[in-house]
Each structure stands twice: as structure tokens, then as C-alpha cells.
What does this fold into?
Amino acid sequence: MISMKNVSKWYGSFQVLADCSTEVAKGEVVVVCGPSGSGKSTLIKCVNALEPFQKGSITVEGISVGDPKTNLPKLRSRIGMVFQNFELFPHMTVTENLTLGQVKVLGRSIGEATEKGLKLLERVGLLAHKDKYPGQLSGGQQQRVAIARALSMDPIAMLFDEPTSALDPEMINEVLDVMVELAKEGMTMMVVTHEMGFARKVAHRVIFMDAGRIVEDANKEEFFGTPRSERAQQFLSKILHH
Amino acid sequence: MSGFDFDVIERSLPYLFREGMTFTLTLTALAMTGGIVFGTLLAMMRLSAFKPLSMLAGAYVNLMRSIPLVLVIFWFFFLVPYIGAWILREPNPIKVGTFWSALITFTMFEAAYYCEIMRAGIQSIARGQVWSGYALGLNYWQTMGKIVLPQAFRNMLPVLLTQTIILFQDTSLVYVISATDFLGAASKIANRDYRLVEMYSFVAIVYFAMSYGLSTLVRRLQQRIAIIR
It folds into this structure.
């Protein structure tokens, strides 16, 4: 469904992504991990063209992301994205956050969009907070709203960019639980995270990145059993012994 | 105090406010609205990744901010009739009138200042907010209109209003093109009745009271916004 071929990206003369190639099949959950600065967030943002890349190609369901003729808003509306800092719209209520994209992009009526939004809000256990502003919610609650907002667009795939990194430890699980449920329902997911417990539980594949390169791209069992590269071994031993 | 005649103020109140202050407040309100709209567009141009657009807006802002306002008022007053004639393809300069001439001048001039305020406001919004709008499938104008500008505007409201207080005071300069604003009206009476001290003192007090009152409101507003954020 998502296919990357030899993607390279530079900030000026600094190369952030080097020759990255991978595939994500329909219904597959792929976890992307690696030390900070390794380019994993940049890689995932290339998938919906929030970050441009200079070389290589990315296609989503056969549509080329880098092609200037591609209707990017339309493509992006079909891929849900969840950010590290939630990025809910602080000047709108939770319900307004959930309906904005549906109404403006998908052309749904307010009534239809609200019904859909509230259904999803109930699913993430936050129906009681529908009229609140994001600032009145905890980090974990905001991130669950952000997931519901992404789902409101009926995406064919979901991208998660370190969804739990900005959360207090006691809130991480409430967000991961929603993500696990989503994965079990067969959602195609690309998840940048350090949560190896999540990876063990639901990932099909793990991609390990270092210095802009995909160093390892393996099945979950293989990755956790015997990582081939030394760099991945070091990384795993550091984060698993915490 | 026998040499002063403060009754002249009372006698001229209807003229001062009905004619003068109405002109001043209408000009302020319309130039503020136009200036913020145009200034916001300029700010978006300045922040555009398309270089010619940002350079054009930058040049405009720098030009306006480098010329004294009085000069701009004169300049537009004499030039606008010709530009109007050129646009409408009329052979002779069209009559614009002092009010419209002043309104165009102040809108164009203040837009440069409002632009810099809105630019700071837009830049104060985290990049993630823009990403988040784009990720939902919103286009540039929707992301700007629904997400970035409302927040930028809210954050910058106190500064925008402070600039408007300056605009309110600056409108008094239209008396150089013989417009009857609040100061112009007072000036006419002062000269007619030879009561300069009385009239100009009164005008100063009114400007002070209104500006001070407004800036007190702005300070309160600032505190409220600080609490919301």
C-alpha cells in the first residue's frame, strides 16, 4: 500500500535520509525505531508529503507522493496522522476538532460529521469531554482525541509520529491501548515509537534507522530475536534495560 | 483666567463631535479593518516560500515604514486622482474627496504596520499546527483561514489594538489636506473665534481620555488572554 524506493533528503548539504526503501502492505503494522536524529520522524512525514524529499519515490496505493501533479490535499485526507505534540486546534472544541476535516475536506454535513465524530469520541472513551477545549484535557486525553480526529476521515492508513513521547508515563497506556485495538482491527499503520512493548504486541515488522539509513527491516520475531546489525543490538540493549 | 472663554467649547460641541469626531472614528474604524485585512495578506506574502512574492511584500512594507506619514498623505492626495483616472481610463483626474483619499492612504500605510504584527503572529503558531491541518487534507487557504490566522489574530489582539490607538491619533494629520476631522473641526473654530488655547487644550484632553481609556482596556484584555493561554 505504501511503497518507498531509494528516498533521499537533504537539509542544505546535510543528508537526513539516505536511500530509504521499504514497503507497507495493507493491514500491516510497521514500527519504526532508532536513536534520535536518525531520520525516522522525517521519513514518516515524507509519506504524506509534510516533508519534501529530493530523490527517490514514494507511492500510496499507486499514487506518487512526490509528483507535482498529485492532488496532495486529497491524498493526505486518506492518510491519518497523529503527532508527538497532539496538535489539536486549541481554539476549537473537541467536537469542532473532530468535524473540521470531515466538513471542509470530505464535504460531509455538520450533522453527519458530528455523529461520526461523537461515535469515535465514545470509542476512545472521551464522549463526556465533547464540548471542552483541548487545553482543558490531559495529554493522554488530547492524544486520544487526535487519534479520533484522524479516524474521522476514514483513512486507509495511519501514521503515528512518536505518539507517546510527550506524555507522562501514567498516560502512555491509555493511548497505546487505543492503538493496539486499531492494529487488531486490521488498520495499516506506520508507527515511529520507542515503545518496544507495543512493537512486540502488535507489530508485524520493525524498521531500525540510524543516521538517515534504514539499517534493519525485519519481521518482529527476527528483530527482537537476533538483530543483525551491531547498531540495532546496542540500541535494543539500551532501551530494553530501562 | 479672565482672558479665556471656555464657553466656546460648549457652543461648538455639536460641530466638534457630530462632524469632527464622526469623521475621525469612521476613518479609524475603516482604515483599521482595511489595514488588518491588507496587512494580513501582506504578511502571508512575506512568509511565502515563493521568493518574488515575499520580496514584493517586503519592499512595500519597508517603503511605507521609511516615509513620514504626512508625506504619504500628501502624496496619495495628489496622486490618487490620477491613478483612479488611469484605472478607469478617464481622460481627467477623477475627484476622490478628502475622506476617500485619507481612507486609502491610511489603509495602505497602516497595512505595513499591521503586516509586521500579523507576521509575528503567524510565526508564533507552531509548525505542527500547520502540519496537522495539511494532514487532514486542508489546503493552504483553509489551513490559514481556519487554523493559523484565528490563533495568530487572538495572540496579537492586544498589539493590533495598540496599533489602532496610534492610528486613531495619526488620523489627526488629515488636517493637512483640510479634512474636517476632530482636530480639523476644532482648528477651524479656534481660528474663527480666535480661541486657540481653549480649543487645542480641549482637543488634547479628549484625545488623551480616549487613548488612555482604550489602552487600559487593552491591558485588561492582555491579562485575560494570558490566562486563557
Q: What stands out?
A: Chain B touches chain A through 19 residues (CB under 8 Å). The mean pLDDT of chain B is 91. DSSP finds eight helices and no strands in chain B. The two ends of chain B are 54 Å apart (CA to CA).
